[in-house]
Amino acid sequence: MKIRVGVFFGGKSVEHEVSVISALQAIASIPADKYEVIPVYITKENEFYTGFECSCIEEYSNIPALIKKSTRCTLMNNEGRVQLMRYPFRKTGSNVISDIDVAFPIVHGTNVEDGTLQGYLKLTGVPYVGCDVTASAVGMDKYVMKTVLKDNGIPVLDCVRFISSDFSEPENVLDRCEEKIGYPVVVKPVNLGSSVGISLAENREELYNSLEDAFRYATVVLVEKAITNLVEINCSVIGNTDTAEASELEQPISFGKILDYTAKYQKGKVTEEEAKAFKEGIDEIVNNPLSIENTLKNDSSIIVSPDGRYVKKGEGIVKYDYSTELTRFDGAKLSRINLSRPAKAAAGMASLSRLIPPNMTEETRAYIRSLAVKAYTVLGCNGLSRIDFMIDKSTNKVYLNEINTIPGSLSFYLWAPLGVKYSVVLDAMIQLALRRSREEEAIEFSFESDILRNFAAKGAKGAKGSKTGGAKSGSKL
Ligand SMILES: Nc1ncnc2c1ncn2[C@@H]1O[C@H](COP(=O)(O)OP(=O)(O)O)[C@@H](O)[C@H]1O
Ligand SMILES: [Mg+2]
Q: For residues 237 and 420, what is the distance between their CA atoms, to the nearest angstrom?
Protein backbone atom coordinates (compact mmCIF):
# COMPACT_ATOMS: atom_id res chain seq x y z
CA MET A 1 0.00 0.00 0.00
CA LYS A 2 1.22 3.46 -0.85
CA ILE A 3 2.21 5.92 1.87
CA ARG A 4 -0.40 8.70 2.08
CA VAL A 5 1.25 12.11 2.10
CA GLY A 6 -0.80 15.18 3.01
CA VAL A 7 0.84 18.20 1.38
CA PHE A 8 -0.14 21.34 3.33
CA PHE A 9 0.35 24.72 1.68
CA GLY A 10 -0.86 28.32 1.57
CA GLY A 11 -1.81 29.86 4.92
CA LYS A 12 -2.05 33.33 6.40
CA SER A 13 1.29 34.60 5.15
CA VAL A 14 2.55 37.24 2.74
CA GLU A 15 4.25 34.37 0.94
CA HIS A 16 0.95 32.50 0.41
CA GLU A 17 1.17 32.52 -3.39
CA VAL A 18 4.80 31.39 -3.49
CA SER A 19 3.83 28.51 -1.24
CA VAL A 20 1.12 27.40 -3.67
CA ILE A 21 3.70 27.31 -6.47
CA SER A 22 6.31 25.48 -4.37
CA ALA A 23 3.74 22.91 -3.23
CA LEU A 24 2.29 22.19 -6.66
CA GLN A 25 5.80 21.80 -8.10
CA ALA A 26 6.53 19.26 -5.37
CA ILE A 27 3.21 17.42 -5.79
CA ALA A 28 4.06 16.90 -9.47
CA SER A 29 7.40 15.32 -8.54
CA ILE A 30 6.60 13.15 -5.47
CA PRO A 31 7.15 9.58 -6.75
CA ALA A 32 3.67 8.28 -7.59
CA ASP A 33 4.65 4.61 -7.35
CA LYS A 34 5.46 4.96 -3.67
CA TYR A 35 3.23 7.77 -2.39
CA GLU A 36 -0.37 8.89 -2.70
CA VAL A 37 -0.57 12.67 -2.42
CA ILE A 38 -3.49 14.41 -0.73
CA PRO A 39 -3.30 18.19 -1.29
CA VAL A 40 -4.47 20.36 1.60
CA TYR A 41 -4.79 24.02 0.68
CA ILE A 42 -4.89 26.45 3.65
CA THR A 43 -6.67 29.69 2.75
CA LYS A 44 -5.53 33.09 4.01
CA GLU A 45 -8.37 32.73 6.57
CA ASN A 46 -6.79 29.46 7.85
CA GLU A 47 -9.51 27.18 6.48
CA PHE A 48 -8.41 23.84 5.05
CA TYR A 49 -9.64 22.53 1.68
CA THR A 50 -8.85 19.39 -0.25
CA GLY A 51 -9.77 17.81 -3.56
CA PHE A 52 -8.24 17.16 -6.96
CA GLU A 53 -8.62 20.81 -8.02
CA CYS A 54 -6.38 21.93 -5.16
CA SER A 55 -3.43 20.44 -7.04
CA CYS A 56 -4.11 22.29 -10.30
CA ILE A 57 -2.28 25.61 -10.67
CA GLU A 58 -4.82 27.12 -13.09
CA GLU A 59 -7.54 26.86 -10.41
CA TYR A 60 -5.71 29.43 -8.28
CA SER A 61 -6.56 32.25 -10.66
CA ASN A 62 -10.05 32.17 -9.07
CA ILE A 63 -9.76 31.07 -5.45
CA PRO A 64 -13.46 31.53 -4.49
CA ALA A 65 -14.38 29.20 -7.39
CA LEU A 66 -11.67 26.71 -6.32
CA ILE A 67 -13.06 26.68 -2.79
CA LYS A 68 -16.56 25.94 -4.07
CA LYS A 69 -15.28 22.92 -6.00
CA SER A 70 -13.20 21.62 -3.08
CA THR A 71 -14.07 19.92 0.19
CA ARG A 72 -13.53 21.78 3.45
CA CYS A 73 -11.66 19.54 5.87
CA THR A 74 -9.87 19.24 9.18
CA LEU A 75 -7.18 16.94 10.54
CA MET A 76 -8.05 14.68 13.48
CA ASN A 77 -6.52 11.90 15.45
CA ASN A 78 -9.04 9.07 15.62
CA GLU A 79 -7.83 6.26 17.86
CA GLY A 80 -4.22 6.66 16.79
CA ARG A 81 -4.91 7.18 13.09
CA VAL A 82 -4.53 10.70 11.78
CA GLN A 83 -7.30 11.36 9.30
CA LEU A 84 -8.39 14.17 7.06
CA MET A 85 -12.09 14.62 7.81
CA ARG A 86 -14.82 16.37 5.92
CA TYR A 87 -15.93 19.49 7.82
CA PRO A 88 -18.66 20.33 8.83
CA PHE A 89 -19.36 16.68 9.68
CA ARG A 90 -22.26 14.95 7.95
CA LYS A 91 -24.76 13.19 10.18
CA THR A 92 -24.79 10.05 8.06
CA GLY A 93 -22.04 8.20 6.27
CA SER A 94 -18.31 8.41 6.81
CA ASN A 95 -16.63 11.78 7.17
CA VAL A 96 -13.15 10.37 6.58
CA ILE A 97 -11.58 11.67 3.40
CA SER A 98 -8.26 9.88 3.84
CA ASP A 99 -5.81 8.64 6.43
CA ILE A 100 -2.63 10.72 6.47
CA ASP A 101 0.55 8.73 7.13
CA VAL A 102 2.84 11.73 6.91
CA ALA A 103 2.26 15.47 6.48
CA PHE A 104 4.44 17.56 4.20
CA PRO A 105 4.26 21.29 5.07
CA ILE A 106 5.28 23.41 2.06
CA VAL A 107 4.55 26.83 3.50
CA HIS A 108 6.58 30.02 3.63
CA GLY A 109 6.65 32.87 6.12
CA THR A 110 5.18 33.90 9.44
CA ASN A 111 2.05 32.16 10.80
CA VAL A 112 2.95 28.90 9.10
CA GLU A 113 6.67 28.18 8.52
CA ASP A 114 7.64 29.54 11.95
CA GLY A 115 6.60 26.42 13.89
CA THR A 116 2.90 27.24 13.86
CA LEU A 117 1.86 24.61 11.33
CA GLN A 118 4.47 22.20 12.69
CA GLY A 119 2.97 22.56 16.18
CA TYR A 120 -0.52 21.90 14.85
CA LEU A 121 0.66 18.77 13.01
CA LYS A 122 2.56 17.56 16.04
CA LEU A 123 -0.53 17.98 18.19
CA THR A 124 -2.55 15.74 15.89
CA GLY A 125 0.21 13.15 16.14
CA VAL A 126 1.04 12.92 12.45
CA PRO A 127 4.71 12.59 11.43
CA TYR A 128 5.69 15.65 9.40
CA VAL A 129 8.44 16.52 6.96
CA GLY A 130 11.07 19.13 7.73
CA CYS A 131 12.18 21.09 10.75
CA ASP A 132 10.48 20.53 14.07
CA VAL A 133 8.71 23.24 16.06
CA THR A 134 11.85 24.58 17.76
CA ALA A 135 14.09 24.68 14.69
CA SER A 136 11.29 26.30 12.66
CA ALA A 137 10.70 28.98 15.29
CA VAL A 138 14.41 29.67 15.85
CA GLY A 139 14.98 29.78 12.08
CA MET A 140 12.27 32.41 11.67
CA ASP A 141 13.64 34.81 14.29
CA LYS A 142 16.78 36.38 12.84
CA TYR A 143 18.02 37.54 16.27
CA VAL A 144 17.52 34.24 18.10
CA MET A 145 19.06 32.40 15.15
CA LYS A 146 22.16 34.63 15.16
CA THR A 147 22.55 34.10 18.90
CA VAL A 148 22.53 30.32 18.56
CA LEU A 149 24.92 30.42 15.60
CA LYS A 150 27.32 32.80 17.35
CA ASP A 151 27.38 30.57 20.40
CA ASN A 152 28.51 27.77 18.09
CA GLY A 153 31.30 29.72 16.42
CA ILE A 154 29.52 30.38 13.13
CA PRO A 155 30.30 33.85 11.75
CA VAL A 156 27.31 36.23 11.75
CA LEU A 157 27.19 40.01 11.63
CA ASP A 158 26.95 41.60 15.08
CA CYS A 159 23.64 43.28 15.68
CA VAL A 160 21.54 45.13 18.23
CA ARG A 161 17.92 44.22 18.88
CA PHE A 162 15.10 46.59 19.81
CA ILE A 163 11.46 46.14 20.72
CA SER A 164 8.87 48.72 19.76
CA SER A 165 8.63 50.24 23.26
CA ASP A 166 12.40 51.04 23.10
CA PHE A 167 11.57 53.35 20.24
CA SER A 168 9.56 55.61 22.52
CA GLU A 169 12.99 56.99 23.40
CA PRO A 170 14.49 57.15 19.92
CA GLU A 171 17.62 59.09 20.88
CA ASN A 172 18.75 56.20 23.09
CA VAL A 173 18.14 53.72 20.30
CA LEU A 174 20.06 55.82 17.77
CA ASP A 175 22.95 56.33 20.23
CA ARG A 176 23.17 52.64 20.87
CA CYS A 177 23.30 51.79 17.15
CA GLU A 178 26.03 54.37 16.54
CA GLU A 179 28.05 53.15 19.49
CA LYS A 180 27.70 49.41 18.78
CA ILE A 181 27.52 49.27 14.97
CA GLY A 182 28.29 52.54 13.13
CA TYR A 183 27.15 53.52 9.64
CA PRO A 184 26.09 52.26 7.19
CA VAL A 185 23.60 49.89 8.80
CA VAL A 186 20.79 47.63 7.68
CA VAL A 187 17.58 47.65 9.72
CA LYS A 188 15.31 44.61 9.52
CA PRO A 189 12.28 43.13 11.27
CA VAL A 190 13.41 39.91 12.98
CA ASN A 191 10.70 37.65 11.59
CA LEU A 192 9.67 38.65 8.08
CA GLY A 193 10.83 37.54 4.66
CA SER A 194 10.96 38.90 1.10
CA SER A 195 12.88 42.01 2.23
CA VAL A 196 9.72 43.48 3.82
CA GLY A 197 10.61 46.37 6.15
CA ILE A 198 14.36 46.07 5.39
CA SER A 199 16.32 49.20 4.56
CA LEU A 200 19.76 50.74 4.63
CA ALA A 201 20.66 53.82 6.67
CA GLU A 202 23.79 55.91 6.20
CA ASN A 203 23.23 58.56 8.86
CA ARG A 204 21.22 59.31 12.00
CA GLU A 205 18.21 60.73 10.18
CA GLU A 206 17.98 57.78 7.79
CA LEU A 207 18.38 55.40 10.70
CA TYR A 208 15.41 57.01 12.46
CA ASN A 209 13.32 56.63 9.29
CA SER A 210 14.42 53.03 8.76
CA LEU A 211 13.55 52.08 12.33
CA GLU A 212 10.18 53.79 12.06
CA ASP A 213 9.53 51.87 8.85
CA ALA A 214 10.64 48.50 10.29
CA PHE A 215 8.44 48.96 13.38
CA ARG A 216 5.46 49.36 11.07
CA TYR A 217 5.85 45.68 10.17
CA ALA A 218 7.15 44.10 13.36
CA THR A 219 7.45 44.60 17.09
CA VAL A 220 11.07 43.41 17.18
CA VAL A 221 13.77 44.70 14.82
CA LEU A 222 17.52 44.36 14.53
CA VAL A 223 20.21 46.68 13.29
CA GLU A 224 23.44 45.33 11.80
CA LYS A 225 26.40 46.57 9.77
CA ALA A 226 25.64 46.96 6.06
CA ILE A 227 27.96 45.14 3.71
CA THR A 228 28.46 47.55 0.84
CA ASN A 229 30.55 45.27 -1.35
CA LEU A 230 28.24 42.28 -1.14
CA VAL A 231 28.11 38.87 -2.78
CA GLU A 232 25.29 36.58 -1.70
CA ILE A 233 25.64 32.80 -1.75
CA ASN A 234 22.98 30.22 -0.87
CA CYS A 235 23.35 26.54 -0.06
CA SER A 236 20.73 23.89 0.57
CA VAL A 237 21.25 21.17 3.18
CA ILE A 238 19.39 17.86 3.35
CA GLY A 239 19.25 15.26 6.13
CA ASN A 240 18.49 14.94 9.77
CA THR A 241 20.80 16.60 12.23
CA ASP A 242 23.15 13.60 12.24
CA THR A 243 23.25 13.02 8.48
CA ALA A 244 23.29 16.49 6.92
CA GLU A 245 24.74 17.04 3.45
CA ALA A 246 25.26 20.27 1.49
CA SER A 247 24.09 20.93 -2.06
CA GLU A 248 25.71 22.93 -4.82
CA LEU A 249 25.91 26.67 -4.16
CA GLU A 250 24.06 29.45 -5.95
CA GLN A 251 24.76 33.13 -6.30
CA PRO A 252 21.45 34.98 -6.53
CA ILE A 253 21.75 37.93 -8.87
CA SER A 254 18.09 38.81 -9.13
CA PHE A 255 17.47 41.79 -11.35
CA GLY A 256 14.23 42.77 -9.61
CA LYS A 257 15.67 42.42 -6.13
CA ILE A 258 18.71 44.58 -6.73
CA LEU A 259 16.58 47.20 -8.42
CA ASP A 260 14.10 47.15 -5.56
CA TYR A 261 16.93 47.29 -3.11
CA THR A 262 18.64 50.21 -4.84
CA ALA A 263 15.34 51.95 -5.34
CA LYS A 264 14.50 51.48 -1.68
CA TYR A 265 17.90 52.63 -0.49
CA GLN A 266 17.98 55.71 -2.59
CA LYS A 267 14.31 56.40 -2.03
CA GLY A 268 14.00 57.23 -5.70
CA LYS A 269 14.07 55.65 -9.10
CA VAL A 270 16.94 53.70 -10.54
CA THR A 271 18.67 55.72 -13.19
CA GLU A 272 19.35 54.44 -16.69
CA GLU A 273 23.05 54.43 -15.87
CA GLU A 274 22.51 52.15 -12.89
CA ALA A 275 20.40 49.79 -14.96
CA LYS A 276 23.14 49.73 -17.61
CA ALA A 277 25.83 49.07 -15.00
CA PHE A 278 23.77 46.25 -13.62
CA LYS A 279 23.31 44.71 -17.06
CA GLU A 280 27.06 44.90 -17.64
CA GLY A 281 27.62 43.28 -14.29
CA ILE A 282 25.40 40.40 -15.31
CA ASP A 283 27.19 40.06 -18.64
CA GLU A 284 30.48 39.88 -16.80
CA ILE A 285 29.20 37.17 -14.48
CA VAL A 286 27.80 35.18 -17.38
CA ASN A 287 30.96 35.48 -19.45
CA ASN A 288 33.42 34.88 -16.64
CA PRO A 289 34.93 31.43 -16.75
CA LEU A 290 34.37 29.54 -13.52
CA SER A 291 37.40 28.98 -11.41
CA ILE A 292 36.16 25.81 -9.81
CA GLU A 293 35.73 22.46 -11.43
CA ASN A 294 32.18 22.00 -12.53
CA THR A 295 30.49 18.65 -12.01
CA LEU A 296 28.38 19.31 -15.08
CA LYS A 297 30.90 18.39 -17.75
CA ASN A 298 32.54 21.76 -17.13
CA ASP A 299 29.53 23.49 -18.57
CA SER A 300 29.82 26.80 -16.81
CA SER A 301 27.24 28.55 -18.91
CA ILE A 302 24.02 27.39 -17.29
CA ILE A 303 22.03 29.65 -15.06
CA VAL A 304 18.71 28.90 -13.47
CA SER A 305 16.06 31.50 -12.73
CA PRO A 306 13.65 31.12 -9.79
CA ASP A 307 10.81 30.01 -11.99
CA GLY A 308 12.95 27.18 -13.26
CA ARG A 309 14.09 28.66 -16.55
CA TYR A 310 17.57 28.00 -17.76
CA VAL A 311 19.76 30.33 -19.61
CA LYS A 312 22.44 28.67 -21.66
CA LYS A 313 25.03 30.96 -23.14
CA GLY A 314 24.20 31.70 -26.76
CA GLU A 315 20.84 29.95 -26.63
CA GLY A 316 18.62 32.51 -24.93
CA ILE A 317 15.98 31.44 -22.42
CA VAL A 318 14.51 27.98 -22.33
CA LYS A 319 11.35 27.16 -20.48
CA TYR A 320 11.57 24.27 -18.09
CA ASP A 321 8.64 21.95 -17.87
CA TYR A 322 8.17 20.89 -14.26
CA SER A 323 6.70 17.55 -15.22
CA THR A 324 10.03 16.67 -16.79
CA GLU A 325 12.33 15.18 -14.21
CA LEU A 326 15.67 16.76 -13.64
CA THR A 327 18.56 14.42 -14.08
CA ARG A 328 21.67 16.42 -14.86
CA PHE A 329 22.29 19.65 -16.62
CA ASP A 330 24.19 17.82 -19.30
CA GLY A 331 23.56 17.61 -23.02
CA ALA A 332 21.10 14.73 -22.71
CA LYS A 333 19.12 16.57 -20.10
CA LEU A 334 18.91 19.82 -21.94
CA SER A 335 17.67 18.11 -25.06
CA ARG A 336 14.55 17.11 -23.12
CA ILE A 337 13.70 20.74 -22.51
CA ASN A 338 11.84 22.72 -25.08
CA LEU A 339 14.48 24.85 -26.75
CA SER A 340 12.15 26.21 -29.35
CA ARG A 341 11.15 29.36 -27.52
CA PRO A 342 14.23 31.52 -27.05
CA ALA A 343 13.15 34.79 -25.48
CA LYS A 344 14.44 38.22 -26.30
CA ALA A 345 17.50 39.46 -24.47
CA ALA A 346 15.51 41.93 -22.36
CA ALA A 347 13.20 39.26 -21.00
CA GLY A 348 16.28 37.17 -20.34
CA MET A 349 17.82 39.87 -18.19
CA ALA A 350 14.68 40.24 -16.14
CA SER A 351 14.61 36.60 -15.12
CA LEU A 352 18.32 35.97 -15.00
CA SER A 353 18.71 35.55 -11.34
CA ARG A 354 21.13 32.95 -10.15
CA LEU A 355 24.48 31.53 -11.01
CA ILE A 356 25.07 27.86 -10.24
CA PRO A 357 27.77 27.23 -9.22
CA PRO A 358 29.15 30.66 -8.37
CA ASN A 359 32.50 31.87 -9.50
CA MET A 360 34.71 31.10 -6.50
CA THR A 361 37.68 29.00 -5.45
CA GLU A 362 37.14 25.39 -4.44
CA GLU A 363 38.40 26.32 -0.98
CA THR A 364 35.72 28.97 -0.46
CA ARG A 365 33.07 26.64 -1.83
CA ALA A 366 34.10 23.89 0.59
CA TYR A 367 34.18 26.35 3.51
CA ILE A 368 30.68 27.67 2.81
CA ARG A 369 29.25 24.17 2.37
CA SER A 370 30.81 23.06 5.67
CA LEU A 371 29.41 26.13 7.45
CA ALA A 372 25.97 25.34 6.03
CA VAL A 373 26.08 21.80 7.40
CA LYS A 374 27.32 23.00 10.78
CA ALA A 375 24.58 25.63 11.02
CA TYR A 376 21.93 23.07 10.04
CA THR A 377 23.15 20.79 12.79
CA VAL A 378 23.37 23.37 15.57
CA LEU A 379 19.95 24.78 14.71
CA GLY A 380 18.54 21.25 14.97
CA CYS A 381 17.12 21.14 11.45
CA ASN A 382 15.51 18.18 9.74
CA GLY A 383 14.44 17.44 6.19
CA LEU A 384 15.84 20.22 4.04
CA SER A 385 16.65 23.91 4.46
CA ARG A 386 18.42 26.65 2.52
CA ILE A 387 21.12 28.62 4.25
CA ASP A 388 22.02 32.06 2.92
CA PHE A 389 25.43 33.67 3.23
CA MET A 390 26.86 37.11 2.59
CA ILE A 391 30.46 37.65 1.52
CA ASP A 392 32.00 41.04 2.16
CA LYS A 393 34.17 41.41 -0.92
CA SER A 394 36.26 44.14 0.70
CA THR A 395 37.52 41.74 3.37
CA ASN A 396 36.56 38.38 1.82
CA LYS A 397 34.82 37.49 5.07
CA VAL A 398 31.88 35.10 4.93
CA TYR A 399 28.85 35.63 7.19
CA LEU A 400 25.81 33.45 7.60
CA ASN A 401 22.83 35.72 6.93
CA GLU A 402 19.75 33.58 7.48
CA ILE A 403 18.17 30.15 7.22
CA ASN A 404 15.03 29.39 5.26
CA THR A 405 13.63 26.25 6.85
CA ILE A 406 11.18 25.74 3.96
CA PRO A 407 12.84 27.44 1.00
CA GLY A 408 11.04 28.45 -2.19
CA SER A 409 10.78 25.48 -4.59
CA LEU A 410 12.41 23.50 -1.75
CA SER A 411 15.63 24.60 -3.51
CA PHE A 412 15.46 21.52 -5.74
CA TYR A 413 17.55 23.28 -8.38
CA LEU A 414 20.58 23.18 -6.06
CA TRP A 415 20.49 19.39 -6.00
CA ALA A 416 20.22 18.75 -9.73
CA PRO A 417 23.84 19.84 -10.36
CA LEU A 418 24.96 17.05 -8.02
CA GLY A 419 22.97 14.54 -10.06
CA VAL A 420 20.06 14.32 -7.61
CA LYS A 421 16.57 14.29 -9.13
CA TYR A 422 13.82 16.31 -7.47
CA SER A 423 11.83 13.11 -6.93
CA VAL A 424 14.79 11.70 -5.01
CA VAL A 425 15.01 14.83 -2.83
CA LEU A 426 11.28 14.59 -2.00
CA ASP A 427 11.47 10.86 -1.30
CA ALA A 428 14.45 11.44 1.01
CA MET A 429 12.60 14.22 2.87
CA ILE A 430 9.55 12.00 3.47
CA GLN A 431 11.69 9.06 4.59
CA LEU A 432 13.65 11.34 6.95
CA ALA A 433 10.36 12.43 8.53
CA LEU A 434 9.26 8.84 9.05
CA ARG A 435 12.64 8.00 10.55
CA ARG A 436 12.48 10.94 12.95
CA SER A 437 8.95 10.00 13.93
CA ARG A 438 10.02 6.43 14.76
CA GLU A 439 12.92 7.76 16.84
CA GLU A 440 10.69 10.24 18.69
CA GLU A 441 8.02 7.65 19.34
CA ALA A 442 10.54 5.40 21.01
CA ILE A 443 11.67 8.19 23.35
CA GLU A 444 8.26 9.59 24.20
CA PHE A 445 6.70 6.23 24.80
CA SER A 446 9.10 5.11 27.54
CA PHE A 447 9.25 8.61 29.07
CA GLU A 448 5.48 8.95 29.39
CA SER A 449 4.90 5.50 30.80
CA ASP A 450 7.45 6.16 33.59
CA ILE A 451 5.71 9.37 34.62
CA LEU A 452 2.32 7.74 34.75
CA ARG A 453 3.68 4.91 36.85
CA ASN A 454 5.19 7.41 39.32
CA PHE A 455 2.00 9.40 39.57
CA ALA A 456 -0.13 6.33 40.04
CA ALA A 457 2.16 5.05 42.82
CA LYS A 458 2.39 8.33 44.73
CA GLY A 459 -1.10 9.61 44.27
CA ALA A 460 -2.58 12.92 43.23
CA LYS A 461 -1.36 14.63 46.43
CA GLY A 462 2.26 14.40 45.33
CA ALA A 463 1.41 15.85 41.97
CA LYS A 464 -0.05 18.94 43.65
CA GLY A 465 3.35 19.89 44.98
CA SER A 466 3.70 18.49 48.52
CA LYS A 467 7.23 17.61 49.62
CA THR A 468 6.90 14.01 48.53
CA GLY A 469 8.69 12.16 45.75
CA GLY A 470 5.61 12.81 43.66
CA ALA A 471 6.29 16.53 43.74
CA LYS A 472 9.80 15.91 42.49
CA SER A 473 8.71 13.92 39.48
CA GLY A 474 5.95 16.47 38.91
CA SER A 475 8.47 19.31 38.84
CA LYS A 476 10.47 17.53 36.18
CA LEU A 477 7.59 18.02 33.76
N1 LIG B 1 23.89 43.45 6.46
C2 LIG B 1 23.54 43.56 5.19
N3 LIG B 1 24.32 44.24 4.32
C4 LIG B 1 23.97 44.37 3.02
N5 LIG B 1 22.86 43.86 2.49
C6 LIG B 1 22.04 43.17 3.28
C7 LIG B 1 22.32 42.97 4.68
N8 LIG B 1 21.33 42.26 5.23
C9 LIG B 1 20.45 42.01 4.23
N10 LIG B 1 20.87 42.56 3.05
C11 LIG B 1 20.17 42.46 1.76
O12 LIG B 1 18.76 42.39 1.96
C13 LIG B 1 18.26 41.14 1.52
C14 LIG B 1 17.17 40.64 2.46
O15 LIG B 1 17.69 40.45 3.76
P16 LIG B 1 17.49 39.09 4.57
O17 LIG B 1 18.19 39.24 5.86
O18 LIG B 1 17.90 37.96 3.71
O19 LIG B 1 15.92 39.10 4.82
P20 LIG B 1 14.70 38.32 4.15
O21 LIG B 1 14.25 37.38 5.20
O22 LIG B 1 13.70 39.39 3.89
O23 LIG B 1 15.19 37.62 2.92
C24 LIG B 1 19.47 40.22 1.45
O25 LIG B 1 19.26 39.17 0.53
C26 LIG B 1 20.56 41.18 1.04
O27 LIG B 1 20.48 41.44 -0.36
MG1 LIG C 1 16.84 36.49 2.60
A: 13
